[in-house]
Amino acid sequence: MDSSALTISHDYLDIDSIIAVNTKVTTKMESTVCKLGFIDPACDSENIVKNTKLELPIWLTRELYNDGLATFELPKGYNESFRQVLEADANVVDLHRLGPNYYRLGQFLAALNLPESTAIANCLVDTFYQRLRRIMDFSSNSPTSLTPEIGQFVGKLDNEEVKLFEESRKAMEKFKAWEDRRIEKILSNELVTKLRKRKRAAMELD
Amino acid sequence: MNFIDRCVSLLKELSSSKKDFLPVYNNEIVSECITTMKRLFEENQKEALDTSTDSASSQDGFIVVKIRHSILLFIKRCLIAYHHERLNRLKKLRWEFGSELPTEVSCNLTPKEIEWFAKYCSNLSDYMGRLNEGRGFDLTLNRTAPKRIFIQVRCLQDHGDHELEDGTTVCLQKDNLYYLPFSQCEKLIHQGIIEQVSD
Amino acid sequence: MFIQDLGKEFYELLYGQRILVLVNYDVDATCAAKLLSSLFRSDNILFTIVPILDAEDLFVTYTAHRASVKYILLINIGASLDIVELLEPEDEQVFFIADSHRPVDVYNAYRGNQVRLLMKNDDAGEIPSYEDLFRDSDDEDDDEGSQSIAGMTLEQLEKRQERRTWNEKRLKILSEYHEFNYYGESVAWTFFNLARKLGKDSNELLWLAIVGIYDLRLTGRIDRNTFKGYLGQLKSHVKRLGDLKSNVNLFREATPIDDIFNAPAGRRSCISVTHKKDLQLLLYRHWNLHDSLKHTMHVSCQFRVWHLRGYKRLLEFLAELGIPLRQSKQKFACMDLELRKHIQEWVSDLTEKYGLSKIIDDTFEASHGFKYKFVASDVVYGVKALLESPNKELSPKEKFMKALDSLSWTKTDVLIEGIELAKLQHSAILKAVHDIIEMRAIESAGPFLHTIIPEGAPDAKLFSYPGCLIALARFALEAYVVSVRRKRVLDLPLIVVTPDVNTPGCSLAVGIPPVSQDPTKNLFGTAFIEAGKMINCQIEVTLYDMCVVRFPSEERSNLFEALIIQLR
């Protein structure tokens, strides 16, 4: 994760990371800073006064935090009460709603050297471990067309988990195709078929 | 701070579009981001060159410059990621569609991207031409190990006359059944003109 | 030119070459195409299969492909058309024609190397000799019109007279030759024999040949004796190829054929063909007994199910068989096991009493694995329904490809779909016959009977296909003969006219021979053409069968008048 704004991390170009890191958190300024008024859209003055609360993206908050200028609350899903819920049973939680990039943001927070960082890190690992079983189950044993049940399940997964699910599914499909001797059959490229379907759908609408 | 959200919206647009196709290049937001970056840079410059302040406010000034700079870097990161993702998808399109892109796809590209694509295609064909001891080798074919020399295919669109490697022509009409050598069918199958029929 | 040895004079020429195969839209041709495609694939002969709907289609397809092929094979097309005149091919191109339509056009027979007919000499019929048809024209009409009669020498006059008598004789021979249309050997069978000669025959190919032969039988193109001839040969092949399979036994001693559960896995996935005597009820395995009895032509006509009394008799028959009515209306596979096992026995006991002599007959059954068992006639009806399906969303070529798919054992769901369509087809036929009899829509026009399907009839779209139309005509004539107890109707042929849904403004007409005469010899092919010439109207003969023609709807009454004059 980005440990400072000035170095380039391994996920510099990753879109999901960027979106995750842009999550807004409630920041409380610990000291007054002149001429920093522009970061607060609600503020008219040029300065930021101590004890103002604003919603800032977390990457910006980190800058302020590292200089001791602000503190912030952990975003929803990472605080103590939530961690307890996850510890109890992670399978019922809708991680997609909590933030489709739960794990990424969690990793970011863990790298920040907050007092709760270790706890967050442990919680992440534990949550993933608990949910993994279900993901494996659903992806390896489902029919080729997505039933509503599976659709619902996927809807509650975090983006990382969705990627894992898709990979697992693809692998299972390939195996089934090998079993049915379907791999001998050459298919037109996926995108070409998709494009044709789109065209046909567009023509039908006309 | 709204401009930051606008910037991220670029990326959200890209991530929500289907992973394979390119949406229209969002010139508006990109140029907005660039102007914002310029503005921030100028303000920082002004601030940095402004030596007529006392030590307390210069401390603050330092912070302000730092914050502005980090915003600048963030916007830069967004823009680079946006363009990088688009180019990656474009690269993949070469392997799916061949060097001729259908109009539905190419209408969403900027002229620079089209130029880049042409260069990539020529790089790829140059490389492929040098394989196999100079005789050339098409990497886009035979992605699965072929099982037969000849295959039975059915034509999906009227394609007219198609020349085979031995010089003879085959007239490809819709819904005819053909039995042809595998090597010459594969490209047509990839393009969706014919489909393989199993028995 | 006729080719007797298909192996040497046809197949061997094709090694390393490409061939264009043009196929007609009937079941026999479809089976032959499928058979040939597996033969060609085993020898890496490149081919292209294109289905042909009518003469125009033939011309267009040939023009598109003419530059790229040397050998062209026509299946069930072309024997009765003058191919060279129609298509004007290049000199090097060779046409092979495997067609069961007869009589063979005389130009095809004498065209030499360019047109090669894949049929045995005795199967091709009595073709008039060369001298009777063609003569050198060097001493022809150069002095025909230039001199008056008085100025000619005796010799010239005699020559002229001789020429005239020769011409008259020629015309007479040709008109006799073309008077009746009939059918020769099944093309699927011809190609199966080729496969056998090459040593490449198998159960799958045998099954295709069986289906082709049954198509000829069920559409009335061959009579019982010819069919019996085939039957003997088919039975011996079934035995021979069946035994071969039981010898391929990798793991244990020879097991009896029924012991399929212990067979090595390979055997379970190949098809096995058996011969047996079975109920000849339409699609009864895929339908229920009651409907099947109602829709089978000879049962339906025997009982006259369109009358209430007749229907009651049918129900009595079922009751006497010992089958409860409720069960007979359930799907056959869901009936009681006891009933299903004994039904054939019980029916055979009652055939005399109810006059159902044709109800039990020889048939062949193919099974694949544990699930699918099909009888030859089921497959024929299924494939026919797919070829003639009224589905507007599929082009005719797509329907042909579907029919071709249905013959493949990995795609049996397509065949099941076809069988469902066949049920619809036959229900429509029964209903139409019902209406015709009830409304007394069959009228006599003197030398023939005729009936007209009204323009807006709901099932008219099903009858716009020649195969279905012929089936309707046969059923209608049979039903009429049975309802009207006059001796005279036994000698009258029937013409059925229906609006052609696919070609607006045109109608299709089919003529079938009277019940008392040979059903395989049909004179309407030439009769329609001659009548058309008489009224100067464009009559288009369908490629499927010469007795089905297409003509502009408004000429109908003129056509009938011309026919009356013709047939008197």
From TrEMBL, chain A:
Location of this chain's protein in the cell: Nucleus
GO annotation, cellular component aspect: GINS complex
Any Gene Ontology biological process: mitotic DNA replication initiation
Keyword terms, alphabetized: DNA replication, Nucleus
Family annotation (InterPro entries): GINS_A, GINS_bundle-like_dom_sf, GINS_Psf3, GINS_Psf3_sf, PSF3_N
Domain DNA replication complex GINS protein PSF3 N-terminal per the UniProt entry, residue ranges: 14-65
Keyword match Nucleus: yes
Protein family membership: Belongs to the GINS3/PSF3 family.
Function of the molecule: Required for correct functioning of the GINS complex, a complex that plays an essential role in the initiation of DNA replication, and progression of DNA replication forks. GINS complex is a core component of CDC45-MCM-GINS (CMG) helicase, the molecular machine that unwinds template DNA during replication, and around which the replisome is built.
Subunit and interaction comment: Component of the GINS complex.
Protein name according to UniProt: DNA replication complex GINS protein PSF3
Organism the protein comes from: Tetranychus urticae
From TrEMBL, chain B:
SUPFAM superfamilies in the cross-refs: GINS helical bundle-like (SSF158573)
InterPro entries registered for this protein in UniProt: GINS_A, GINS_bundle-like_dom_sf, GINS_Psf1, PSF1_C
Primary subcellular site in the record, as a coarse category: nucleus
Domain GINS subunit: 45-131
A single cellular component GO annotation: GINS complex
GO biological process: DNA strand elongation involved in mitotic DNA replication
Gene3D superfamilies: 1.20.58.1030
Classification via CDD domains: GINS_A_psf1 (cd11710), GINS_B_Psf1 (cd21696)
Keywords associated with the record: DNA replication, Nucleus
Subcellular location: Nucleus
One Pfam family per UniProt: Sld5
Binding partners and assembly: Component of the GINS complex.
Family membership: Belongs to the GINS1/PSF1 family.
Its job: Required for correct functioning of the GINS complex, a complex that plays an essential role in the initiation of DNA replication, and progression of DNA replication forks. GINS complex seems to bind preferentially to single-stranded DNA.
UniProt-recorded name of the protein: DNA replication complex GINS protein PSF1
Natural source organism: Tetranychus urticae
From TrEMBL, chain C:
Stored PANTHER family: CDC45-RELATED PROTEIN (PTHR10507), CELL DIVISION CONTROL PROTEIN 45 HOMOLOG (PTHR10507:SF0)
Entry protein name: Uncharacterized protein
Keywords, alphabetical: Cell cycle, DNA replication, Nucleus
GO molecular function, one term: single-stranded DNA binding
Pfam families tied to this protein: CDC45
Similarity comment: family membership: Belongs to the CDC45 family.
GO biological process: DNA replication initiation; double-strand break repair via break-induced replication; mitotic DNA replication preinitiation complex assembly
